[in-house]
Design goal:
mainly alpha, 10 helices
């Protein structure tokens, strides 16, 4: 009994010590690297057999949505759930990339390089203070994102009943290219918000568990940015 009690107190002390270890930029960077590497590797594997992975796309989408919702409601859970999320999301993105790359040879590498360039540009602009994330900036971006989501949903529903709308917004038209470019810009600006979220976590002195939460947010942003860039580049590949 005494031995058991000592063990409990020992574990409690260990947890307390861990809790006093605050989040750091290097910690977030390492964990972001881990998640991105996992997503990249699973994506490469999935690219080889895209049709097989796409059979489970609905299941993957539902699972990743549930995982992201749990993480959003309980940031501490990112420590456990962010890696499974990276595996599933990476495999799905890899399958989508495989299909695109089969139709437009070399588009995957182009989209990846552009994504890296935009991500690094966002990092430079934020950490040099060129772009500052104010409360107004955040509100504007939230409204813009909400508008983009609702607009996309409306267009998708309308396109189900009108082929002309489908051709205008999903075909190789100037309107589709402009809207795709706007989405790339929006996703690129959210990179800055991801960095600011990291800054807030570190400056607030939150525990190291929140490093996974910050890394998860960056992973989400990078995947979204990559998919938008991939779609944008595909429009130009269609015209060649």
């Amino acid at each position: 009994m005494i031995r058991s009690t000592n063990y409990v107190f020992k574990k409690a002390e260990e947890l307390t010590n861990v809790e006093f270890e605050t989040a750091s930029y290097s910690g977030v960077g390492i964990k972001t690297g881990i998640l991105l590497t996992i997503a990249f590797v699973t994506g490469l594997i999935s690219m080889a057999t895209p049709l097989f992975t796409l059979r489970f796309s609905l299941l993957i989408l539902i699972t990743t949505f549930i995982l992201s919702l749990i993480i959003a409601l309980s940031p501490r859970s990112a420590r456990v759930l962010s890696i499974p999320y990276a595996i599933l999301e990476g495999s799905l993105v890899g399958a989508i990339t495989g299909v695109y790359n089969a139709v437009y040879t070399g588009i995957a590498s182009t989209a990846l390089l552009l994504t890296i360039a935009i991500f690094l540009a966002g990092a430079v602009l934020y950490f040099t203070g060129v772009i500052r994330v104010t409360s107004f900036f955040r509100k504007f971006m939230y409204v813009a994102l909400l508008g983009a989501i609702l607009g996309s949903l409306f267009i998708w529903i309308a396109s189900l009943f009108n082929t002309e709308i489908q051709n205008i917004f999903y075909g190789n038209t100037s309107i589709a290219i402009v809207l795709s470019g706007i989405m790339v810009i929006l996703a690129g600006l959210y990179v800055v918000i991801s960095f600011d979220n990291t800054t807030r976590i570190v400056d607030s002195g939150l525990g190291k568990t929140y490093e996974w939460y910050a890394a998860f947010g960056i992973l989400l942003n990078v995947i979204w940015l990559y998919l938008e860039v991939l779609r944008f580049v595909s429009y130009f590949a269609k015209r060649d």
